[in-house]
Amino acid sequence: MAVPVKILCILMLLLHKSTHPQVFNDEDTLNLPANYAVGWMETLDDEKLISTMTIPGTHDSIALHGGLLAKCQAWSPENQLKAGIRYFDLRVSGLGLIIMHGPIYQFTTLPRVLKIIRAFLDDFSKETVLVRVKPVFLMTEKVQNLVENMIKNATDIWVKPSVPRIGEVRGKIVFVQKDSFKLGIMLSETDKEKDYIVTDVKVKEEKIKKHLEVAADQCRTGTALSLSYSSGTSLGKLSMKIFHFWPKKLAKRINPWLYKHLEKEFEKNPKPCFGIIAMDFPGFDLIQKVIKFNRPT
Fold this sequence. Notes:
This protein is α/β, with parallel strands linked by helices.
């Protein structure tokens, strides 16, 4: 019996959706594919330097509130960890170490987020999670001392400036530092000032390409831990395009492009490494594409 055209079209649409890479996610629930490798670091050589890895991260990792103009992520920190994210960008106020995005409170604190990460590492002891604490908003000068007092005598947090090998930090949090926060590995950001402001997607794509090239050069030596962003917004640009792109809208355009760009980069021999890639609203296929650079061919 011939299959009706309408039914055939529906089946083709469903097949397309099922095979289409999940590169963008704006749902708070996590529906991982069967046999998804949550603990992806366990196969890495213990001697591998953290700075010679390609690490999926999130920009403004706990920016879950604030509407279209402020929200940068959909998944909770627990779900980000399960999806494979291993770098957290935390904007922390000196007012009780609360997490902020600009002036917007994100209804949690640094101690709570670290507790979530520690619980994850209890279950997946071969993993390590990099954490950047960026002092913001009120009483920024107090953040360093508050954090030092909070983690005093902690044996599961790396605070040295030297770059560790993965075997040294399995089951641990690794602090990374930049600017006013001075605990952990020094970050080398590939972005220049105001690169986060986006009014043209093509221009942003070219900037990301250049940033990843810089990161690849740094990654080859292993002396610096590179950080590149695929995130952005048009806020901050005094023009008619000030509301042209908010984080979610831009990620919906950039994430598919980034997936394809990384796919091409992966085909190179030898494969490059890119350090940390911090993203907004990444889907699990995009995260897996980043992770894939760490696997031997």
